[in-house]
Amino acid sequence: xxxxxxxxxxxxxxxxxxxxxxxxxxxxxxxxxxxxxxxxxxxxxxxxxxxxxxxxxxxxxxxxxxxxxxxxxxxxxxxxxxxxxxxxxxxxxxxxxxxxxxxxxxxxxxxxxxxxxxxxxxxxxxxxxxxxxxxxxxxxxxxxxxxxxxxxxxxxxxxxxxxxxxxxxxxxxxxxxxxxxxxxxxxxxxxxxxxxxxxxxxxxxxxxxxxxxxxxxxxxxxxxxxxxxxxxxxxxxxxx
Length: 240
Known about the structure:
Elements: E1 4-7, E2 11-12, E3 15-16, E4 21-27, E5 30-39, E6 42-53, E7 56-60, H1 69-80, E8 84-88, H2 94-97, H3 100-105, E9 109-113, H4 114-122, E10 130-132, E11 137-140, E12 143-148, E13 160-163, E14 168-172, H5 191-204, E15 210-213, H6 223-239
Parallel strand pairs: 7-8, 8-9, 9-10, 14-15
Antiparallel strand pairs: 1-4, 2-3, 4-5, 5-6, 6-7, 11-12, 12-13, 13-14
Helix pairs in contact: 5-6
């Protein structure tokens, strides 16, 4: 059963607006947090994840809504009585990295890949304190997970994370939701390589129980297969 907690409710003349931060239980010690921002005139969700370990909480990506950096930390502390110890961002765009410097100032160890850091610097985005030089296995508390760079797709630097014990694939913005009509913003992407990159993910992690995507419903396990189909179709279209 999925349990959802709602935070940051704003009361205005007795009316409740949509919460700016939502936190939902995924499985075990894993939780999905969602914030919102405006893209092309529409309010879009941005999903991140966090993992509660014996050595503190590990945060994957940062809120897209910059007003929710501290409320997320406060909500985690309130519900788990633990502080965030580590934050890992999956590519250089603002919906993944905007909170890196804020969290660094809070004493949280922040990580991106070396390539993400280079692109963040080039594009004047927030940067991490520590760099991941290659695909890396992290051991934090009782949990082990790995980062994987499958190739270019949504961006030049997009990585995914794999949690083998729980079979969770954290796809970030590389993987789109099963209901998505297209691959989203591709201004920094690689249309010709996108399909191959997604197939690399599928081949390396063929049996996920959960596939977490950034801007769509994360409950549908078919998101990776659907994304591959869209990438294949787009590649064919661009060849014409």
